[in-house]
């Protein structure tokens, strides 16, 4: 059985590294704080009976060898954070995976498959603006050119690797082959489970983000001297489009669309704006539906700017395909949920996770645990102890089922 007190104490102990004044956590990749956190997690892995090593990009990997020469089961998440983030995001997945292996050791249970618990490097992308470095390396998709990405101080990923004692020339050796499945536990970072009054959920897939930048150009004129009917105001056009984006997205059951950035030029209190830029983040686990939503938004925007004589260009910043979780893994999780007498809830993930990197490489699955008030990337991020225990028990049972399958 899961030792919830041991797991809870480790969550608290790890959160002390990188602690901020308002009780948040800041741990960027390849920094002293993250190094210390890795070393602490390494000690937990060793106590759980795992053979521990770092790969060439700094992924921390604890391995428990199986009784048969079979493909590996990977468990993992990350321990880096956003600025002033919470103590559960990422870290809970790593620590729960370790606790699952520790529990098996306590019960003298050895699995047929080897199991690798991985603390992936830099999932968040907080330092270099380029996330999931570790999981990309494990998937074999991290390139030498990616290492040229720099932080705000001009330090590249390559330089950070060397400073930490890793060898960037050998990043391709971090790729892990012969994998049976990947399983990740994570906090939901939303309110679905809380609204359903259930501690755990089965993730159906991970929404792929599509990022667009709308650029609207009108004519900057004097706010007092230009009659209302003679204006070419791109901000008014943008406001109509932004308002409609919310209405359009609401028609789709799992889709979301967010305007997260808006800039107005020239920005004078007595000047009609001459240009406006805003971004739109569109997500859905169904790529076809996401594309339909995108088209509806673009068509409505074109209608508005045509009516108001505004020029518009749309720049595509990012287009990532959604990722579907393995049906077999979902079924194994479902059986574990049933056996432990919890309600069964399926839900998509709107946020990105390391699991995304393994699309089309090997089967993947995710377990969500409830987030209080849906808060994440926030010092107030919280998951109750009993919910952590539920998630850990389900992960343990699911691992055993996947090992037998």
Short description:
Zn(2+) 1 binds at residues 78, 89, 186. InterPro entries: Amidase_Cbmase (IPR010158), ArgE/DapE_CS (IPR001261), Bact_exopeptidase_dim_dom (IPR036264), Peptidase_M20 (IPR002933), Peptidase_M20_dimer (IPR011650). This protein is α/β, with parallel strands linked by helices and 405 residues long.
Mean pLDDT: 96
Name the CATH architecture of the largest domain. 3-Layer(aba) Sandwich
Element string (H = helix, E = strand): HHEEEHEHHEHEEHEEEHEEHEEH
Q: Rounded to an integer, what's the Rg over CA atoms? A: 23 Å
Q: For this entry, what is the oligomeric state of its chains?
A: single chain
Query: In whole angstroms, how far apart are the ends?
Result: 21 Å
CATH class of the largest domain: Alpha Beta
Largest sheet entry: 9 strands, mixed
| Overall form | globular
Please report the number of helical segments: 10
- State the helicity in percent bands: 25-40%
Cofactor: Zn(2+)
GO molecular function, one term: hydrolase activity, acting on carbon-nitrogen (but not peptide) bonds, in linear amidines
InterPro entries: Amidase_Cbmase, ArgE/DapE_CS, Bact_exopeptidase_dim_dom, Peptidase_M20, Peptidase_M20_dimer
Binding site for Zn(2+) 2: 89, 124, 377
């Amino acid at each position: 059985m899961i030792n919830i007190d041991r797991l809870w104490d480790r969550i608290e102990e790890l959160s002390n590294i990188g602690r901020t004044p308002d009780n948040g956590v800041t741990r960027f990749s390849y920094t002293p704080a993250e190094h210390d956190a890795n070393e602490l997690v390494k000690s937990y892995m060793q106590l759980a009976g795992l053979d521990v090593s770092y790969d060439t990009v700094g992924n921390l990997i604890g391995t428990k060898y199986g009784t048969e020469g079979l493909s590996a089961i990977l468990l993992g998440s990350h321990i880096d954070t956003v600025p002033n983030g919470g103590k559960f995001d990422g870290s809970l997945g790593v620590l729960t995976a370790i606790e699952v292996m520790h529990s098996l050791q306590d019960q003298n249970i050895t699995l047929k498959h080897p199991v690798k618990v991985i603390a992936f490097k830099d999932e968040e992308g907080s330092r270099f603006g380029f996330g999931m470095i570790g999981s990309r390396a494990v998937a074999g998709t991290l390139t030498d050119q990616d290492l040229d990405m720099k932080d705000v101080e001009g330090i590249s990923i390559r330089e950070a690797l060397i400073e930490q004692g890793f060898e960037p020339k050998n990043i391709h050796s971090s790729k892990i082959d012969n994998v049976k499945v990947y399983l990740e536990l994570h906090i939901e970072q939303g309110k679905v489970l809380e609204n359903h009054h259930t501690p755990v959920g089965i993730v159906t897939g991970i929404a792929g983000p599509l990022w667009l930048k709308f650029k609207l150009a009108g004519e900057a004129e004097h706010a007092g001297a230009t009659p209302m009917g003679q204006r070419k105001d791109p901000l008014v056009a943008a406001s109509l489009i932004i308002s409609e984006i919310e209405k359009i997205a609401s028609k789709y059951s799992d889709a979301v669309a967010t305007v997260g950035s808006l800039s107005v030029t020239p920005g004078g209190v007595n000047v009609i704006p001459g240009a406006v830029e805003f971004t739109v983040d569109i997500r859905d686990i169904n790529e076809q539906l996401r594309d339909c939503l995108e088209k509806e938004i673009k068509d409505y925007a074109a209608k508005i700017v045509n009516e108001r004589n505004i020029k518009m260009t749309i720049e595509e910043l990012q287009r990532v395909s959604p990722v579907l979780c393995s049906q077999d893994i979902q079924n194994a999780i479902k059986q574990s949920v049933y056996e432990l007498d919890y309600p069964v809830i399926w839900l998509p993930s709107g946020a990105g996770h390391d699991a995304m990197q393994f699309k089309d490489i090997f089967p993947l699955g995710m377990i969500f645990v409830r987030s209080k008030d849906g808060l994440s990337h926030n010092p107030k991020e919280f998951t109750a102890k009993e919910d952590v225990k539920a998630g850990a028990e389900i992960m343990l049972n699911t691992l055993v089922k996947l090992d037998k399958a």
